Amino acid sequence: MTDAHETAADRSLRTTGGAPPDDGGPSAAEAPIPLLEPREGIPPVIADETSLARVTAAFAAGSGPVAVDAERASGYRYGQRAYLVQLRRQGAGTALIDPVACPDLSALGEALSGAEWVLHAATQDLPCLRDIGMVPTRLFDTELAGRLAGFPRVGLGAMVEGVLGFVLEKGHSAVDWSTRPLPEPWLRYAALDVELLVDLRDALEKELDRQGKLDWARQEFDAIAAAPPPEPRKEPWRRTSGMHKVRRRRQLAAVREMWEARDRIAQRRDVSPGKVLSDAAIVEAATALPPNAHALAALNGFGHRMGRRTLEQWQAAIDRARALPESALPQPGQPVTGPPPPRAWADKDPVAAARLSAARAGVSALAEELNMPQENLITPDTVRRVCWEPPKPLDAESVAAALAGYGARPWQVEQVTPVLLAALSAHP
User: Are residues 181 and 274 in the same domain?
Assistant: First the structure.
């Protein structure tokens, strides 16, 4: 760690000897500058309580926003836990923390509670950070800021290059971060991910302010920070890829039994469920409902590499589904709590279908005018719900109250209410 801090503009001056790129990124004549090394070098990985205490004190004494990132081992390990946490703050430099060796980072989280946390795609990292005691009270999401500002590509590498004029090496984003020790090239990549995050935040804040959207962005960031942890998904087995091929209730029961058996095995082994058995194999077996392990072995995904004992394990799950009484079989679809699928509206309620069509067209036009994705202007689910059951009386105040009731932020309510009111009034 070091007390020195260098902005992207400073780095550009030091690297090129010329002027820094402006807020809009490098000009066509300027080649983006490869960012190859962290300014202070690769910091040592923090893996003991004494070192963690020093880092906590240094970051508490730092100033300004703190860049935060986390690396998971998706596709390799069970769940979405963090295997590396990266931070950077003015006055503290960069820190790489091993949350396996230091699983409780609540003291660090508390030390940073008053600071603004800068994350890229915050909703992806916040759950695993929460699990180790790190919960922000204020944040700035550079990916969401890019969406609201109308950037066509909002990945971190694209944003750093387009806004700041630097190229990040992204070759290690999908590696197994549970590996120990972590290779030096991976650590370099991880450190560089937070190297320019605060600089990116500052440039995006200026751009949002220029477009008159800074307050909108702050409302979105506050909503993310205040959101409670997501509730566990009901019947997660229904998200098995290829479920559209499964038609009968007993086949659905076989998917459920095999999915749950796979999940138990994956959790026990701490491996990704897909490494235990693929979704395609589950669907193949569920649709075929083989009578025995020999027949199961003939199906795709259950070939000669699978041992007899493992085959019998999967066959047992299928046999459990076969033995269930009709009353215990799952229903074909998930319980519908909101409007029906839009494709069914024309038959169920043609007037509502016309409202939805008009509302979608209006939202699309407004999003284009505001230069942002439609889903960031207002969620499609909110539009569907308001169109399926319009508020009464049908006026601006009622529409605004309905939008707020579905979780729309004040800026969204202000922008979208006139559009939806017009669509609803045209098809009462």
Answer: no
Percent of the chain with pLDDT over 70: 93
Question: Do 413 and 312 belong to one domain?
Answer: no
User: In what side-by-side order are the strands of the sheet with 82-90?
Assistant: 45-46, 93-97, 82-90, 63-72, 116-119, 138-141
Closest CA to 25 of 201, 203, 144: 203
Print burial letters for 276-309: b (CB count within 10 Å at least 16), e (below 16): bbbbebbbbbbbbbbeebeebbeeebbeeebeee
199 and 167 housed in the same domain: yes
Rounded mean pLDDT of 76-92? 97
pLDDT for 385:
96
Residue 248: phi and psi, rounded to 5, are: -95, 155
For residue 415, the domain's CATH number is 1.10.150.80
Instruction: Pick the last residue of a domain from 269, 297, 328.
Output: 328
pLDDT band at residue 337, thresholds of 50, 70 and 90?
A: confident
- Provide the whole-model pTM: 0.88
